[in-house]
Amino acid sequence: MDIISQLQEQVNLIAHLAFNTIGTLQRDAPPNRLSPNYPEPPAHPTEEGTNFSEQPKLMSSTLVKAAKQFDALVAALPISESGEEAQLKRIRELQAENDAIGQELQKQLEAAEKELNQVQELFSQASDNCLNLKKPDDN
């Protein structure tokens, strides 16, 4: 997999982890009193034996690991040549190379078409010769 695809996958993973982390925190966070003027919020129903205090730590560490992996992938990207002029020069070089290869391919295509015509002509002659032969006598 190329580095750009890896970066895209890592961004998707980070978005997935962030979405799940925030959703889980919203779902499992205990209610909190907004002001002393408001009544005490109702108790948050929890399952017996479930320790929700560890869950945010685990989820945040997973999110941090994914972000560090993304940073490592970004650091592995090749450094581009400086400036637009250098890029334009490289594009011109690649275009010249492409034109030269295109001309060579065109020459090969013309040679192949010429050879195909010769083979078709020889096949036609051979077919004509076979059809013009007499059948052998059964006597």
UniProtKB/TrEMBL annotation:
It is found in: Nucleus. The keyword Nucleus applies. Component of the Mediator complex, a coactivator involved in the regulated transcription of nearly all RNA polymerase II-dependent genes. Mediator functions as a bridge to convey information from gene-specific regulatory proteins to the basal RNA polymerase II transcription machinery. Mediator is recruited to promoters by direct interactions with regulatory proteins and serves as a scaffold for the assembly of a functional preinitiation complex with RNA polymerase II and the general transcription factors. GO terms for biological process: regulation of transcription by RNA polymerase II. It holds the Pfam family Med21. Component of the Mediator complex. This is Mediator of RNA polymerase II transcription subunit 21. It comes from Phaseolus vulgaris (Kidney bean). Its main location: nucleus. Signal peptide: none annotated. Keywords: Activator, Coiled coil, Nucleus, Transcription, Transcription regulation. Residues 91-129 form a coiled coil. The lineage of its organism: Eukaryota, Viridiplantae, Streptophyta, Embryophyta, Tracheophyta. Residues 28-54 are annotated as: Disordered. GO terms for cellular component: mediator complex. GO terms for molecular function: transcription coregulator activity.
